[in-house]
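Q: Structure tokens for this one, please.
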Amino acid sequence: MPGIRSATRRALTAALALPLLAAALTACGYGSQAPKQEQAAFAPEGEQLSAGEVRVGYFPNLTHATALVGVEKGLIQKELGGTRLAATTFNAGPSAVEALNAGSVDIGFLGPSPSVNGYTRSHGGNLRIIGGAASGGVKLVVDPEVIRTPADVRGKRIATPQKGNTQDVALIHWIGEQGWSVDPESGKGDVSVVRSNNKVTPGAFRTGSIDGAWVPEPTASQLVALGGKVLLDEAALWPDGKFVITNIVVSQRFLAEHPDVVEAVLRGTVRTNDWIDSHPDQAKAAANRALERLSGKPLPSSVLDAAWPSIKVTDDPLAGTLRTQAAWAADAGLLADPELDGIYDLRPLNAVLAAEGRPAVGDAGLGAR
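A: Here is the predicted structure, written as tokens:
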């Protein structure tokens, strides 16, 4: 197939590969690499809260911009005073949930699927969603030489990051909305759903092993840089264009024992999101500095500039959209009918928002009582 797999595309891929493969991880990223402990950039100052340290886990990924910027700029540490922020980065949603379960991480930034899976598999015993972090940033990018309209997706090979992850569920739901069918286990059907780690998806796209991918940023913009076209922005499928892509979660034990620390972290994330909204260019640069520090390479400016605008930081966890995403997974047979009652505890966040003179956010009837 000429065009995307031309010599020009191959040269562009070689130029982009090293920096992008290091940093293009998903919000619900998957892999087997061990978590990485960060060195504290800002020392604790002031009065210590009820814990000497809070261990926060997140991903080196743009959809975790709140954590990237909040840690990089010291905005979360500032709210913790004399309590030390110990940051750990993960490459896999399951490993982050395991760390919460084991008590090696207290607060984490997680995508919807690992949040739901972590809650339901423990029968509601291990975590609570305590806030939102990001909305959007997910696109269906295709080879425009073989897919020009949504109808052309039928019969093609479309990648998602992993079976049952947030983007996989959204694609399978969308396929059903078109009147087509696919087996959720094998990925075979009217569309071939190819489960592919985002670190290798660009290479598969370049060589023609896949015809497109339903992926989060910055992977979507990487595919565009290789000649792909955005066929669909997932935001277009949601009311007001909003849907949760990153939550803030906490172990229930830590929440019970150190509510003041949890509230301080949330105050830090709320103020970080305010700073990101008020300083978009500086925030984008800070996020890329964090990615460079964590992965060894920054994102190329062309990819970063294309990806950044589609990711919206938010304090609101958009609970109604998580309920919908879980229902889609259950409908597809990728998740047992989930019992989500109690998955949220937004009382600490709403206390922070009230102190900031802002309205409370809702839990869609799924809050802890």
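A few notes: Residues 259-278 form the longest helix (20 residues). The chain has 14 helices and twelve strands.
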